[in-house]
Each structure stands twice: as C-alpha cells, then as structure tokens.
Design goal:
The protein is an alpha/beta fold and 335 residues long. It has helices at residues 11-22, 54-61, 77-87, 124-142, 172-177, 197-207, 228-239, 250-256, 262-268, 277-282, 292-305, 316-327; strands at 2-6, 26-31, 45-48, 66-71, 91-97, 146-152, 154-156, 182-185, 191-192, 194-196, 216-220, 226-227, 244-248, 333-334. The chain folds into two domains: 2-156 and 194-220, Rossmann fold (3-Layer(aba) Sandwich); 172-193 and 225-271 and 292-334, UDP-galactose 4-epimerase, domain 1 (Alpha-Beta Complex). It has twelve helices and 14 strands. The strands form four sheets. It has a seven-stranded parallel β-sheet, with helices on both faces. It has a three-stranded mixed β-sheet with strand order 8-13-14. It has a two-stranded parallel ribbon with strand order 7-10. Helix 4 links the parallel strand 5 and strand 6 (146-152). Helix 1 crosses helix 6 (197-207) and helix 7 (228-239) packs across helix 11 (292-305). The longest helix has 19 residues, at 124-142.
Length: 335
C-alpha cells in the first residue's frame, strides 16, 4: 500500500505512521519541513512543500499516483478544492481528517453523539471543517476518488499537551503538583473524552483501502467518556497529589481572558461525549487500548523531558482569579 500523508509531523500523524508501518505500507510525507519528524523512521520519504501553494504540489509530486492520500492539514474549503483538483485520478482512496467540532454543542437524548447527529458547529474552525467535509463527499459522489471522513475529538500523547478544562497548554498540572487549587468550570460534571494519539491513528491506518469505509464518516474516540472531575482526579493520581478544586461559571472564567480561555469558550464548557461504535463495526482493528491514566503519565513525563512544563509561579493572572473566587466565599473542594 502506497500512502501519501499530507502533514505527518503532528500528534495524530505520529500514531497513523506507527500503524501504517505495522501494515507494511510505503509512506511519503508532504509538509513544510518546519517541525521535527517524531517518527524517527528514515524509510519514510519526505517531500518539502506548502500545501497552500499549488505549484509545490505540481513540482514535488507531479504525476505520481497513490493508493491512499491522508490529508491531516486541510482546514479551509479552498484547501479542499485544491486537494480535490490535484488528486483526482491520482489516488484510489482519500481520507480527510475532520473534527467532532462540526457537531456543535447540542446534546442528543442519549447523550452520546454519533455520526447521524445534526452538524451545527458554533466555531469558525468547525464551520470550515464541515465545509471541507461536504466538498470531499461531493468528490466521492462524482467518482473522483473514494473518500472517508474521520472526526477525532481531543487527542493527547507524547509530543503534545494534556489539556485541562480551561486551556490547551494548562498550568493546572503544576498547580496540582504544588498543592495549589485549580479552577474548573461549572460543577465539573460535564462529559469529556480524550483519546491517545496511537489509538486515534489506528482508525486512519486501518480504514485505508477498506471498502466499508468508502463514502463514510466516523468518530475517532475511545469508548470511555468521563467527567472533568474524573479527568482531574486521574491526573492527580498520576502526580501523586489530591486535587483541590474551585468551581466557577465558565462565563466568568472566560471574561477574565477571552483569548487565553478560548478552548473553554468554544468547546470544553459543553458536553463532549461521543460514540465510535460505527468505526469499530467497520474497522475492527480500531480498538483503543491505552488507558487514560497510563497515557496521561506518559504525556506528562514527555512534557517534562521537553522542558515544556508550565510553571505556575510565573502565572499571577491565574492566581488572581483564585483569590477573587475565594474572596467572595467560593470554597475550595478536595476531589
């Protein structure tokens, strides 16, 4: 199987490559070469170019053909149009990395969101990804190539961050380790799911050239949804420390710094609970095996090893928010 991976240096891509190699695939990466290749695999062909420059595609790839193209860095309809035009007739199967953000924030009667749930995104990121989905599925209907759409949720693992309820690169883990209270939005009972990069990448790798996946869309999450309280407590167990929580309304937290807490504003204040039963039905190899405790421990250790650990001592803004909350009588609760 000859696979072109557009991107290849991101978090999920590392998991994809691992499982494509297990399948014996020949892999080529196309990206700008601005980030280190985490795979360390010298057998992977590297092509340097900018996906936003169609001349780079033409010059670097030319008339080459692929069994599978996996596009990890298509974020706008314009980029989707370029990919469709360029790879029409040059690949058998095109896999597009979308996002669960295309669903929006409504909660179905059964709580868990499956692929039939209406797509009503509230963020520009979600709206753009949905527009890309539609263009790729139209290409599938025209017969340009077979298309599969995969929608990851929150992913984590070595090389990336472990998000908390408030931000992508949290200071909360250092605060827990130092015995300081942390902010959690609402009552901390919102549902969430985090999937290790290697488990998520497995769906992309084993969906490749699987005819059951042609023309289909899939959630790519583990079947373990938990509350934010549970997530924080699990990380606390990894760190060997209790979690001391201060619960405040999401709107109040965001109002303190809308840019910093953009994740909370658009995503994490809402339920993020999904089912991937359709994916496990059609791609039986997609079995999520990495427990969140083990994955969190691995990820936090990697963050330390990269000297990327955030020091809460140099974050007076967060400490100031805690002080305001406690000054108005909000209690610190040990979870």
């Amino acid at each position: 199987m000859n696979v072109l991976l557009i991107g290849g240096t991101g978090l999920i891509s590392t998991g994809i490559v691992k499982h494509l190699k297990a399948r014996g695939a020949t892999i080529t990466m196309f990206n700008r070469g601005q980030r280190a290749d985490r795979t360390g695999d010298t057998s992977i062909e590297k092509i340097t170019g900018d996906r936003n420059n169609s001349a780079d595609f033409t010059q670097a790839i030319g008339r080459r053909r692929w069994d599978v193209v996996i596009d990890m860095i298509c974020f706008t309809p314009a980029q989707a149009e370029v990919s469709i035009e360029f790879f029409r007739g040059k690949c058998q199967h095109f896999i597009f990395c979308s996002t669960v953000c295309t669903y929006g924030v409504k909660v179905p009667p059964g709580v868990l969101v499956d692929e039939t749930f209406p797509q009503e995104p509230i963020s520009q990121y979600g709206r753009d990804k949905l527009a890309c989905e539609k263009k790729f599925l139209e290409a599938h209907e025209r017969g340009d190539f077979a298309v599969t759409v995969i929608r990851p949720s929150s992913t984590y693992g070595p090389g990336g961050n472990l998000i908390d309820n408030l931000e992508f690169n949290p200071v909360a883990w250092d605060r827990i380790e130092k015995g300081k209270p942390v902010l959690i939005a609402g009552d901390g009972l919102g549902l969430w799911v985090s999937t290790h990069r290697d488990d998520c990448g497995k769906l992309f790798a084993y969906a490749a050239l699987n005819p059951k996946t042609f023309g289909q869309c899939y959630n790519a999450t583990r079947e373990q949804n938990f509350t934010w309280r549970e997530l924080y407590c699990t990380v606390g167990r990894v760190l060997g420390k209790p979690v001391r929580a201060v619960f405040m309304p999401a709107e109040w937290i965001v109002s303190n710094d809308e840019k910093r807490f953009g994740l909370l504003k658009e995503i994490t204040q809402f339920h993020g609970a999904y089912t991937s039963s359709k994916a496990t039905r059609d791609v039986p190899e997609f079995v999520c095996e990495i427990d969140f405790y083990d994955g969190a421990a691995e990820t936090l250790q990697d963050i330390r090893s990269r000297n990327a650990w955030r020091n809460s001592e140099v974050d007076p803004a967060y400490e100031g928010m805690i002080e305001i909350a406690t000054s108005i009588g909000v209690k610190t609760i040990e979870l």
